[in-house]
Structures are given as C-alpha cells and as structure tokens.
Amino acid sequence: xxxxxxxxxxxxxxxxxxxxxxxxxxxxxxxxxxxxxxxxxxxxxxxxxxxxxxxxxxxxxxxxxxxxxxxxxxxxxxxxxxxxxxxxxxxxxxxxxxxxxxxxxxxxxxxxxxxxxxxxxxxxxxxxxxxxxxxxxxxxxxxxxxxxxxxxxxxxxxxxxxxxxxxxxxxxxxxxxxxxxxxxxxxxxxxxxxxxxx
Length: 198
Prior knowledge:
This protein is an alpha/beta fold. It has three domains: 10-82, no CATH class; 96-149, no CATH class; 160-193, no CATH class. It contains six helices and eight strands, in the order βαββαβαββββααα. The chain has helices at 18-23, 62-73, 96-100, 160-163, 170-173, 186-193; strands at residues 10-14, 44-45, 55-58, 78-82, 103-110, 117-122, 128-132, 137-141. The strands form two sheets. Strands 2-1-4-3 form a four-stranded mixed beta sheet. Strands 6-5-7-8 form a four-stranded mixed beta sheet, with no helix packed on it. The longest helix is centred in the middle third of the chain and has 12 residues, at 62-73. The radius of gyration is 19 Å and the shape is globular.
C-alpha cells in the first residue's frame, strides 16, 4: 500500500503544465503501474498555494477539472482547490471500517419543519460526504476528482416517470418529453466520459 497523504485539503497549481499533461489523454494514455511503483502525485499541499492566480476553481469534479484544464491550456495560471485527498489505485478504502473513517455527514437530521436538528460530524476531509437535505439527500465526493470518486462514472438517462415527480420544476414535470431536444448531446457526453451503456 502506498503512503496516504496527510488528511488536509489538496490543491493543484497549474500554469499550463500539470493539468495540460492529463487533458490530452490521446497524447498521454492512462498511466500503467506495476503495483509496486507509487503513482506520481499531481496535487500539492495547501501550504504551497501562491498569493495570486489568474483563476481559482473550487471543486475538481467533472465540471471543475474541465474548467481548470481549459483555462490552463489558454495560458492562465490556475489554482484548483478540492477538499480531501488525492487517491490512486490501492489507496481507496476496502473494508467497512476503513470506509466509515472516510464519511462526513452534514445537514438536517430532522427537517426544520419538524423543529430541526442539524448535524455536522465525521471526517471533514473524508472521501464520502453525505449531505442531508429537505426532501433529498446527496452523496458527494471529497478528494481530487470530486464526485467522480464515488459515482463510478454512472451514466443513466433519467426516465420520464422520475421527471414527472413533484420535486422537479413545472417546466420539466409537466412536459418531460420536452427534454428530448437535449438528447442530441447524449452521444457527445457518452463519448467524452467513455461511458458504456451495456
């Protein structure tokens, strides 16, 4: 097992070098590893943050990492901030106890309409962040890669029965088929995420 970095927030400081290397995956295929050699770290300790950047991106998930990469390729100096650690194969929790040590829970344990009891407990930089909300809960990912660390690159088209639920805005709920015009973008999304539908 490779040494795990300290449990602090990580940052990737980019001046068109680090993220640029990973942005062109056709030029730089996935790093292969023999299982003995540590993977190269791309994050830097938070103590290495400079005083000034052209751009600061908060969150290194699907949206933040793409935004940071594109700005870096455009020549901007970029600071990409993420709560949590950088993990490589062999560093993910594999058992129940290890996984529980990676949980953070925040939000309303009892909804405010019932008197409200807020909760903020667990590992503040843990990989799994359960956010308890009104009518829905979210599991977010903390660590370099954001939500991609915990959603296994799931790529599902939302069914119309789900879109008809009262939680959606009326524009969607009353006409879920109206989202059909967005279907033209599904193949592009599928290709860019290298998702498989089988």
